[in-house]
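Thread: quick sanity check before group meeting

JM: Hey all, I'm pulling together slides for Thursday and realized we never actually wrote out the predicted structure for the chain we discussed last week. Dropping the sequence here so it's in one place. If anyone has concerns about the input, flag it before I start.
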Amino acid sequence: MKKGTFLVLILCSVLTFNNTQAQLLKKLKDKVNQAANKVLDKKVDSTINTAAGLPADGEGSSGTGTGPNGKPVNKGGAGLKNTPPPDVAEQIKEAETANTAGNYSDARYAIQQALIGVELQIGKEILKSLPITVNSLPADTLQDKLVSTQWGWNNLTILRVYTDGKDKEATISIGNNLMYSSLAYLYFNNTYMQANMNDQNIKQIKVKGNKAIIQYDDSKGYTLIVPLGQSSMIVWECVNYADETEVTNTAAAFDIDGLKKMLGEQ
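JM (edit): ok, ran it. Output follows.
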């Protein structure tokens, strides 16, 4: 065999061996990467599940029925049922009985419950008095809310939403509103200063003879606040309204003086 031919055969053998070895190494590398990815994915899933309070293995509450740290995982329950508002007459009777027995703590609690019952009854009457439609926006009564945590109107909140079901909405809240109470206090006590008078985003107006504040924010829309007394107010939050006139027309559709009387503020 000629020397040149022999060298060519040797070279081909070496190249073939190197190519085969490279393919084997690539396959081995791919398998290693796949295995590593599975381990990494499992660790990531385990970390996420643990943070979410789920079983670390990602298999939910099946299997052993235990979660992280070996604690049992809840698989269901009947939940809580709505309780009726306190019966005012019954709570007053209980307060009298407890007071006679010298159990003043129970007497105080019963009086609190009676006052909460009164507030909730008034709140229901206020909801009934609100318009069903305001400037072509129907009320979504499924979103009606009535909350009373203690006695006094500063703990009573009544909420109703008017919406077209798309992008236009007006939310009215009556009673306590911690989000806006500080703003109303500062503004009506002349301590609020407008940062830019050329681009005013808040100002004082009147709605049906009542002092009010109207504010505009690009992300939230319009907010109109009418104080009702020392601790309560009516707040309209209007999203995708054309201008402040449309907002004040919405507020004018409500019997503000009537609401004051029902809340005992007038």
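AS: nice. The helical segments are 3-51, 88-100, 104-129, 178-188, 244-252, 256-262. The first helix runs from residue 3 to 51.
JM: adding both to the slides.
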